[in-house]
Design brief:
The protein is mainly alpha-helical and 130 residues long. It has a domain of 86 residues. Helix content is 58%, strand content 10%. Strands 1-2 form a two-stranded parallel sheet. The longest helix has 25 residues.
């Protein structure tokens, strides 16, 4: 194992299960992978898949924009203010759709709910860089 038995940094990865439970300071799941999952969901037949996909692609795109703006301007206060509001938007969107979601959409939403600290790690800390 390249990282050793434990790693005192932030592990950035896709959502492959092998990384879950690895002894690290924190994890940041790849939002580009998550965005691809929701884009794929939008093409699948199923109740509410299109609307759920559109909702979360829009949220992920917002996250990309705000993080890019933060990296350019380094306005940590604005970034943290946005991050607090963003967390509420994500949680509200999950709650709105989780009971209306089919199999694939439900799995994605449960992943967002269960691993929120890994999907949105960058929004909670200024120490994370890409």
């Amino acid at each position: 194992m390249i990282l050793g038995s434990n790693y005192n940094g932030v592990l950035s990865s896709d959502d492959y299960n092998v990384y879950n439970g690895y002894d690290v300071k924190a994890q940041q799941k790849c939002l580009a992978h998550l965005r691809r999952h929701f884009k794929k969901l939008m093409k699948l037949p199923g109740l509410n898949n299109l609307k759920i996909g559109e909702t979360f692609v829009k949220l992920i795109d917002e996250a990309f924009r705000h993080y890019a703006n933060f990296q350019q301007g380094q306005d940590i206060l604005s970034f943290f203010n946005w991050g607090s509001q963003f967390k509420v938007k994500v949680e509200s969107s999950i709650n709105e759709w989780i009971d209306k979601a089919g199999g694939d959409a439900g799995r994605l939403l449960r992943s967002l709910q269960y691993k929120a600290h890994q999907w949105w790690y960058f929004a909670r800390t200024s120490g994370y860089t890409t």
